[in-house]
């Protein structure tokens, strides 16, 4: 019997061709998930404010539409002060002030360096519409001096996702009790957030504002991912953990918009990304760190819903486990009676 065992095991293993095909498909999916949003990144209805006379504003809209079809969603504001306030409230990414004497393009690199770079290129295109005077560019909400390109925050998107996935995976393997897993996930989210925020804010200088506010956003992100994956694993086993991890990694991370902006991603996909924890966390983190919390309401709601979903899934998993134990105990009692 022992001599036949290796043969049986070999028969259960898939052919090499099948393994190669599956690995190739996985590699292709990974490439599409991460490269496609970046390769198709361009302005799509980017909110932009324009301050100036209605006639000139109309000409500007036509010019921008011709230069970048569908690139901007333009909102008229009365003056420069209103444009600045709209940027700080995160209602728009930037603004154009059509002052004949002092034309100006206002940007907010902290809200999205890629968008700010696009807006900074507008003065050359606007020179003809402002009497040949190229507007100056003013960064209203700049990135920190220690990280002027926002590289640290953009690179932090992947650790946020991996933190939640690795936390859930480790807890399912190392901790037996379901209740202890939930407590461990919450504790890991808090401790991990404090550590990551310290690195991003005090070492790399990529974040500003309240350390505790920034840490709170990161904790919500890690916690919502970890608890959701724990709940899926509790209900569906390893398949649930794998499915949840794939959604967060292959959809949540590339569609988060942290490296550009949600409006820069292919139509519809950027909006979808904002309903997943990585995208909501990225938007909330920018709002809390650089804009005093402006525009963080919806991202916090999304993160809260995912956190609640995770707790509900864990509760259902606990109820299912309890039911199984009761049924098993009854079967054992019946066997003993017989």
Question: How would you characterize the overall build of this protein?
Answer:
Helix content is 64%, strand content 7%. It has 338 residues and is an alpha/beta fold. It has two domains: 46-139, D-Maltodextrin-Binding Protein, domain 2, CATH 3.40.190; 151-328, no CATH class. The chain has a five-stranded mixed sheet, with helices on both faces. Helix 8 (157-174) runs antiparallel to helix 11. It starts with a helix and ends with a helix. This is Membrane protein.
Question: What's the gist of this structure?
Answer:
With 338 residues, this protein is α/β, with parallel strands linked by helices.
Notable characteristics:
64% helix, 14 helices, 5 strands, alpha/beta, D-Maltodextrin-Binding Protein, domain 2, single chain, 2 domains
Mean pLDDT: 87
The biggest beta sheet is recorded as:
5 strands, mixed
Distance between the termini: 35 Å
Task: Report the β-strand fraction as a percent range.
Answer: 5-15%
Helix content: 55-70%
Q: If helices are DSSP runs of H or I spanning 4 or more residues, what is the number of helices?
A: 14
Molecular shape: elongated
The secondary-structure class comes to alpha/beta
Spatially, the strands of the biggest sheet line up as: 2-1-3-4-5
* Low-confidence region ranges: none
Number of domains: 2
Number of strands: 5
Can you write the helix and strand succession as a string? HHEHEHEEHHEHHHHHHHH
Radius of gyration: 26 Å
């Amino acid at each position: 019997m022992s001599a036949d065992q290796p043969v049986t095991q070999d028969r259960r293993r898939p052919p090499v061709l099948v393994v190669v095909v599956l690995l190739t498909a996985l590699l292709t999916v990974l490439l599409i998930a991460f490269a496609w949003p970046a390769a198709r990144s361009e302005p799509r209805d980017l909110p932009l404010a324009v301050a100036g006379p209605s006639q000139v504003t109309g000409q500007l809209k036509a010019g921008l539409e011709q230069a970048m079809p569908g690139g901007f969603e333009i909102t008229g504001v009365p003056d420069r002060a209103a444009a600045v306030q709209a940027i700080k409230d995160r209602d728009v990414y930037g603004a154009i002030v059509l002052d004949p004497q002092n034309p100006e393009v206002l940007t907010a690199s902290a809200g999205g360096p890629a968008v700010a770079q696009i807006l900074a290129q507008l003065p050359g295109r606007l020179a003809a519409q402002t009497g040949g005077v190229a507007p100056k560019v003013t960064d209203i909400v700049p990135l920190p001096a220690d990280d002027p390109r926002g590289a640290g925050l953009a690179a932090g998107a992947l650790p946020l996702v991996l933190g939640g996935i690795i936390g859930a995976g480790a807890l399912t393997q190392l901790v037996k009790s379901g209740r202890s897993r939930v407590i461990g996930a919450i504790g890991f989210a808090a401790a991990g957030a404090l550590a990551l925020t310290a690195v991003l804010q005090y070492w790399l200088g990529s974040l500003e504002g309240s350390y505790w506010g920034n840490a709170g956003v990161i904790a919500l992100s890690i916690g919502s991912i970890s608890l959701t994956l724990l709940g899926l694993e509790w209900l569906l086993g390893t398949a649930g953990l794998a499915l949840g991890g794939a959604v967060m990694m292959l959809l949540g991370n590339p569609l988060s918009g942290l490296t550009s902006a949600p409006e820069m991603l292919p139509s519809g996909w950027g909006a979808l990304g904002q309903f997943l924890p990585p995208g909501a966390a990225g938007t909330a983190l920018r709002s809390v760190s650089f804009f005093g919390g402006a525009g963080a309401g919806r991202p916090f709601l999304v993160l809260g819903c995912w956190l609640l979903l995770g707790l509900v899934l864990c509760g259902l998993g606990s109820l299912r486990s309890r039911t199984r134990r009761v049924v098993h105990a009854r079967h054992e009692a019946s066997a003993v009676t017989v």
